[in-house]
């Protein structure tokens, strides 16, 4: 039995947390004993893990570097005695490797697998320095896309420890829930004849949602019934709300905030949009494709690994608002094209990005590091 401890900052309802929960609940129980540690807090996925009888430890970290949480992590690892410590995201990647570095030689020293989930151009020099200093404690660094792995190779991570395991996406229920549709339309005063296009994710600068607003200003000239749904929340919300007023597109935009029922909303969308200037491997694109929704996305390496231009959706240059508008108009004006793109997108997710394939990928790496 291989003992695996999964360490992540929180168990919020976000992309990395979802992939961790899918992995933890899907690893074969006759082969792996899994425990989960959250540095800062629990969240929606804590309940899911506990429903699957997976122990969860919350360390209640309060500061960027919290000595109490650091000591609690060391004690937790000493108690759990994992064969493998699998860390996710910068804070957990740092705390986990530092804690392993300070374990006494007489104690069981786990192999450390680090998961990087994004092309982290946001990292400053000190954060990259931390990553470099902790490389000796890193058995493998796993990216969720080739773009992420290429980024870290350029930052000096040896190719010998780099691996790719793509995100996994469950096969969803694509039927429309009429109760959800009616509630959504009533709650947000959406006309019955509205055509819904959507963004799902954090309202953050990297997502370049202002490009989508500018594109919408062009697209609505074709069809005033188009409504852009922005599902999620974040630091850019107030700025984006002001932009909708400046662009005079307030009637065509709805800010839905965080929605725990987002999976019930996907079947209502005719088109999914993502304009980010950097990503890892977008869970929201994958979810949209799994529902058979065509995608228009920024042409960056991680998105290119998901969206095949002209086959499952369209790609356009970062910041190309006109390109987003043109492809949006093209798809909405041609139902047959939209159907072809959506069907191909759904098939691609089912064949190339299944949860089973993701789980087998990590299980293979766990065996590899223990050899």
UniProtKB/TrEMBL annotation:
Coiled coil: none
Residue intervals of the Glycosyltransferase subfamily 4-like N-terminal domain: 14-170
Gene: pglH_2
UniProtKB keywords: Glycosyltransferase, Transferase
Gene3D superfamilies given in the database record: Glycogen Phosphorylase B (3.40.50.2000)
Glycosyl transferase family domain ranges (all copies): 181-348
Enzyme class: transferase
GO molecular function, one term: glycosyltransferase activity
Protein name, as recorded: Alpha-1,4-N-acetyl-D-galactosaminyltransferase
Pfam families: Glyco_transf_4 (PF13439), Glycos_transf_1 (PF00534)
Enzyme Commission no: 2.4.1.292
